[in-house]
Fold this protein.
Amino acid sequence: MVEIIHPFYESHRAAMEAAMRHRLDLAEAMLCERANLSDMDGIRQEVMDEFEIVLTQMPYVGGAASRMSDFFMRLMGFMAISRVLRRHGVSLPVIGEIERETYKAQLLTAPEAERLASGRQFMSSENQTLLREQAAKSATKSHQEEFPEDFVYDFVEPGPGDNFDFGINYKACGFCKFAARHGDKEILSNICGLDFDAYATRGIHLERTQTLAGGASNCDFRFSRRPSDQDDGRVLQRVTSAP
């Protein structure tokens, strides 16, 4: 049986494949030095072949109408990289380091003004309104029945004494569901590790103390604006033990 890529992802396939090739370019030196891999042409082809498989496995969660579709398109390629590196005996910590540094380098190729404008848009009151609406929709029975592989989350308002602008508690994670379905649980934490750079490079401070992948009841994302003198792509994070 021939596996089919969903038409929504097929329409973005060229851009996703170009992003994957760019990542492999950025990762090449690290793959040689840290992962002790020498046949880079072979690794590139193996990763791109695995990405073809991942594309057929990616769940449809509403396309352009869902903010989570972009998460899948930006990050699922790292599942392919992780699978290939594990087959070559690379340890999980080394895979995580390579992927985080590669992703950060890729994000920083965008002009700073563009990145920070994107961060301001994410933190805006207009986007917070949208997040509230999509969070409420994600928890409805009808949405979960239509898109069972989607994320489910709550919007979190700051209370007295809180030092964040707003938060999101993910109660069900699309990446966790994907990993459980396709045998990728051991590499799942590396996907979680990409979140901090994704926000820091846009001038946003993410604080998270627990994850579903780590066994917690939810992933507690807390967002705040970073001081302007820190808008240089550095990562700020505080990780405490999950309860």
Observations:
- Confidence is low (pLDDT under 50) at residues 229-243.
